[in-house]
Amino acid sequence: MPNSALQEIGLSPNEAKIYETLLRIGRASINSLSVEANVHRRNVYDSVSKLVNKGLAAEEYVAGTRFVKPIHPSRLLDIVREKEARINAILPELKKDFEKKIVSEQAVVYRGIEGFKSYLSDILAVNEQVYFIGAKAFWLDARLRFMLPKFDRQRISQGIHFRHIYDHEVKSLQPDILKLRLNEYKFFPPEYSSTMAIDIFGDHVVTFYGVKPGQLPEEPVQFTVISRQIADGYRKYFDCMWKNLGNARKKN
What we know:
Radius of gyration: 25 Å
Helix content: 40-55%
Shape: elongated
Number of domains: 2
CATH architecture of the largest domain: 2-Layer Sandwich
CATH topology of the largest domain: Endonuclease, Chain A
Structural class: alpha+beta
């Protein structure tokens, strides 16, 4: 797991193996590193040089022998922040290019957990109240446990309010979702539960299917229609349902 995470932030497989080995054994010679990391000596030289350039390792010479020692792992966070800073520097220009090509109405299909991340990013980018029909609390799916807290902090910081109409089962099966802040919610009667959900925000209408209380499908798929006219129509449907479902509960 650590090795794959290191590769995700830009280390090669050999660099990740050698850095993990250095953290485990401390200062080491090139020969020792080659043996302990099970990496060919020639490749160790190349990987050590790159780790030094990235600020993850340092070289020492003792009695003519070259040693390598690890730099504290907190340097990994610096690397991520540096990448983020470089992206932020070019983001305005990239956004301009993207927005030139955006049409006023379109349909998009998002797939997988990465697609779900795009959906969350859309909510923050649109920055308007979100209306949920047939909500299932599938945001509590275990695969989302690392991304949701950061998203929700940003949502609250932006003042994005939620209005949920949950399926009846959520009340007993996933009560933790009711703790969301800036949220009003009601429940459908039991006979109206289904395996689909509809979210509306700004000019977006997002439809999920195959969803259950607290759980996304193995391969989530969501259909997104971007149209202010369609979104306004769905909001009217939402308002009609909301008015006929009794008193709302509120979490500030």
